[in-house]
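User: Could you go from structure to sequence for me? I need the amino acid at each position, not a summary. Structure tokens:
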């Protein structure tokens, strides 16, 4: 905390430099409960001179310092979001709890495929990757989508003239049924088509996705209308949030957590929605004010059951979870490998499951990220390299995991692992135990 105190003291000592900014936005340099954080996630270590910056506000209502060229210098954030509360016994940071793991979980916060947090590293040249290791990282830019893709068409194709709300209703229905359409955005696409076909396999029925009355009736029977009202709570507005997520892993490693960056991002994931669609449903709304009533979709309750077998279909970009009796329990859109960085073939097993995991970056056994050539401990959080879940596979360095970019699931390729949305990965993880088989099919 000494660094935070130093910055606050610096701000107080340099209060005269903020006269113009105070006049414009009412900036209070004496506040001890806030910090100035750069876009890279670092604490601003100096006080800008008078006239050097102006103070504006971002979409969350936070004060933002901007230089004369229009570049963001820093964002004012609450100190307790940058320095999270500590466990009274161990003194370790307390991160968000994603629920109690089922028997067989190892919620140890370290992603399999990386080295232990303690120990030595036998280094090798960084330009000579080890055999059978993926060439890309879990949140590296996805490779060009050149892998063969299977086009899925339901028995009754979806018409092109459905309204956005009609498509939303269809997506919500499929989400509640356990055949995930990915992010709910009111748009048609292969993720919706795949979910429809999976629903037919799961139920043995054929549904007409164009019959709005039938879809609405099914929604009423499964939890109510697709769109509902939600009141933003003080906890929603408080976070914790981080100012931004840097690309560079060495900067990621300096953050206390890779939490959400805004209330909108958090609420979008909470309700399985696309961020832009959430904003579109609530034009002009300030999501940072507790008590604000907004429109959201009502997704389904998490699926429950015991998964005995997982099939990762590379062509369909979809993951199927089957129960012990062979029936389909759930289906999820996924990003699975690419032509350049393929996923494994054949059958592997789940070795362990970690909720809210950290990520240990090791340039020797993982991949080369930027100019980083040291082992880095990346903190956990939904915006972490593997999102909220890591299910390690018996093929070293491969796993099933979440993602900080849910809108890209099923629409881009991965670097060999299986990516799901954070909410789908968490749902699947709670139905999986070590020893479950994962079959990769083309």
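Assistant: Here is the amino acid at each position, in order:
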């Amino acid at each position: 905390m000494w660094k935070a105190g130093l910055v606050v003291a610096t701000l107080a000592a340099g209060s005269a430099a903020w006269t113009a900014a105070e006049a414009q936005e009412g900036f209070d340099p004496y506040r001890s409960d806030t910090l100035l954080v750069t876009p890279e996630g670092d604490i601003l270590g100096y006080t800008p001179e008078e006239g050097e910056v102006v103070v504006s506000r971002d979409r969350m209502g936070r004060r933002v310092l901007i230089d004369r060229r229009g570049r963001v210098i820093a964002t004012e954030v609450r100190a307790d979001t940058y320095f999270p509360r500590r466990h009274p016994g161990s003194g370790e940071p307390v991160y968000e709890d994603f629920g109690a793991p089922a028997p067989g979980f190892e919620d140890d916060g370290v992603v399999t495929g990386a080295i232990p947090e303690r120990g030595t590293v036998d280094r090798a040249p960084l330009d000579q990757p080890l055999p059978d290791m993926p060439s890309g990282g879990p949140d590296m830019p996805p490779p060009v989508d050149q892998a063969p893709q299977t086009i899925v068409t339901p028995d009754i194709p979806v018409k092109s003239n459905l309204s956005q709300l009609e498509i939303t209703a269809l997506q919500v229905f499929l989400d509640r049924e356990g055949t995930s359409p990915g992010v709910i955005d009111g748009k048609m696409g292969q993720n919706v088509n795949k979910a429809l076909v999976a629903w037919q396999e799961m139920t043995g029925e054929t549904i007409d996705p164009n019959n709005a009355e039938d879809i609405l009736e099914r929604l009423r029977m499964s939890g109510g209308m697709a769109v509902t009202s939600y009141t933003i709570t003080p906890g929603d507005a408080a976070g914790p949030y981080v100012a931004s997520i840097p690309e560079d892993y060495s900067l990621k490693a300096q953050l206390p957590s890779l939490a959400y960056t805004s209330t909108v991002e958090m609420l979008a994931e909470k309700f399985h929605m696309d961020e832009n669609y959430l904003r579109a449903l609530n034009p002009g709304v300030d999501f940072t004010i507790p008590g604000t009533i907004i429109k959201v979709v009502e997704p389904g309750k998490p699926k429950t059951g015991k998964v005995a077998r997982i099939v990762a279909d590379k062509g369909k970009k979809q993951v199927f979870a089957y129960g012990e009796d062979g029936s389909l329990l759930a289906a999820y859109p996924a990003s699975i490998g690419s032509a350049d960085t393929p996923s494994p073939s054949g059958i592997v097993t789940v070795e362990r499951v970690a909720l809210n995991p950290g990520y240990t970056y090791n340039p020797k056994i993982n991949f080369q990220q930027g100019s980083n050539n040291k082992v880095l401990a990346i903190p956990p959080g939904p915006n972490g390299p593997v999102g909220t879940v890591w299910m390690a596979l018996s093929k070293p360095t491969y796993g099933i995991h979440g993602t900080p970019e849910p809108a890209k699931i099923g629409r881009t390729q991965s670097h060999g692992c299986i990516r799901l949305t954070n909410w789908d990965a968490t749902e699947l993880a709670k139905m999986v135990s070590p020893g479950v088989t994962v079959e990769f099919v083309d």
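One structural detail worth keeping in mind: Residues 74 and 126 are 34 Å apart (CA to CA).
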